[in-house]
Amino acid sequence: MMQKKRWLFFGAGVLGSLYAAWFQEAGEDVTLVARGERYTAIQENGIVLQHFQTGKETRTQVKVVSSIPDDPFDVCVVFVQKTQLESALEVLKKAKEIKVFIFMHNTADGIGSLVETLGKERILMGHANAGGERVDQTVLYMTSQKMTLGELDGSNSERIQEITAVFEKAGFPVEISRDIDAWKKYHVALAMPFALAMERNDCCNFVMAENKEDVRLCLQGIREAFQVLKGIGIEAEPKKLGQVFWLPDWMLSPLFRKMLRTQIADIGMARHLRNAREEMQQLRVEFENLVEVTNSKTPALDELRKAQ
């Protein structure tokens, strides 16, 4: 039988709260790091979750701390935005008793700072399968299909299998990536043109769904971004991602507009963008650095950027 692990969740926003609560409900040994009013609210009332579609509300009591304890932990799951990563690493590098860190942030500039600060052998990367927003101290959330996890070397190691089993037990099905760094870059290549197009439409998915020209620009911008990554030798991860976006516009555009009219697009995309504008700006800069490396022509992306 696999030995039970001690889990530390660093960051008590939407995702950190959701994952910590579900791990606690699954019987795991959970400690959550929160700060300020969020720390006080969780300490007094637990983690309050409300499902976006059903309205079902749950309240979960977890062990909450305002700083990382000196105790040993098997796994620390880090839920911070990219703009918060540098300050988070200053804290995490002092946590010598943590065996493995799983970083869930978006990034287009790679894993260099993580490896330099914590050592390659202690790092996994992941991507959550949920989204939402916090209304006062209640987390409004929705989950999608599978989350993603990956070793930096792409291996299906024993530790990632053990960690995957716990995530799945807690209610988070997992897909293991063969190249998690490429996966992260392609995610930004997908999200960045979408965010630019959404900004042109008041950051409202329903408005954008009716704007055929901006949907066309968004899809072309995604294709251009994918070409930038291919130009520096990074193949699509997952492979199907590249295949989908090379479908012709007459096929893909109606599907994309249909997706934009859904609740998933509302809570998982539009609301996230409205709450993460600084992060998206940083990710745009990171990706534009890759565009400069390849000296690529990106007319659709250039047009989308005009409104910024």
TrEMBL record:
Keywords: Signal. It comes from the Bacteria. InterPro entries: KPR-Related, KPR_N, NAD(P)-bd_dom_sf. SUPFAM superfamilies: NAD(P)-binding Rossmann-fold domains. Residues 1-20 form the signal peptide. Coiled coil: none annotated. The keyword Signal applies. GO terms for cellular component: cytoplasm. Residues 8-153 form the Ketopantoate reductase N-terminal domain. This is 2-dehydropantoate 2-reductase.
